Amino acid sequence: MRALRFTEFGDPSVLHVAELSDPQASPHEAVVRVEAASINPSDVKNVAGQMDWTVLPRIPGRDFAGVVVGGPPEWQGVEVWGTGGDVGFTRDGSHAELINVPVAALARKPEALGFDEAAAVGVNFVTAWSGAVETAQLTEGETVAVFGVSGGVGGAVAQLGRALGARVIGVGRRKPDPATPAAGAIDEYVVLGPDTPGEIRRLTDGRGADVVYDAVGGVTTNAALGSLARRGRLVVISATGTRTVDIDIRNLYRNETRILGVDSGKLNVTGSAEILRKMLPYFESGAFKPLPITAYYPLSEGEKAYAAVAVNTAGRVVIHPGKA
Questions:
Q1: Burial of residue 55, with CB atoms counted within 10 A of its CB: 0-12 exposed, 13-18 middle, 19 or more buried
Q2: Which end of the chain is more exposed for a tag (fewer CB within 10 A), N or C?
Q3: pTM for this model (two decimals)
Q4: d(C-alpha 95, C-alpha 35), whole Å
């Protein structure tokens, strides 16, 4: 098979197309023909050496959608999708014509989504669901403030909050593009700035948000903390600009604040499949929609595709491994 591969860390130029032996099915491993695979910013960071659990040499790529071509008879020919914090890091990833995954990680792709759309879901929605539902336990009637609502994870959290019956306040330096699903999922929008906590409290009658999902982190941490209601839950998934933050501990304990860290890299392909199965009905019904896809590349232009993501191309970038 053909695959993107890197044997050393660096910019996208370290990627090259390699001819490798086809992965083989076993009693516990299936083989999926990759029809489409998106590129996440974390894939770019992986190639750059910023993910300290990566083992070289490696085929990168976390998200994928494709067809099972090896494995249990009942899975033969089934359209599947997947992602994982081990895929592309400690096990070979999706930027290849074929990928091995545990049989337990096989998850049926929503019929409502094509391969390209399904490949654009993984990291964003799994991280959103893991943080908002399974960790913060966001429920109907609560208010969630989403810092970084214009990004992939933030936009997924906004859609998730809307589907759960929560009130959604989007926070960011710019409003979500009207063409993105997040734009229709938020009830109010607050510009990120010095008075963000005050504005969120104004919108909540002085109470604050029950959950703040901070998809930015670092430079936004104190604003996020200041936006929380009593016993509010702060979900942190990233650290932008700085890894250290001064926190007023007295304010923290007096507000009975909960700070919850979520690392999607700790959720392997099998654990991610469990979440994808839970989200399946939402995608089938149209309640959840992936970000628009703005660029497509064949495997032979993998370096160019990675470079596009590295410069923050809007929307999702998708690789078609089977195309020349």
A1: exposed
A2: C
A3: 0.96
A4: 10
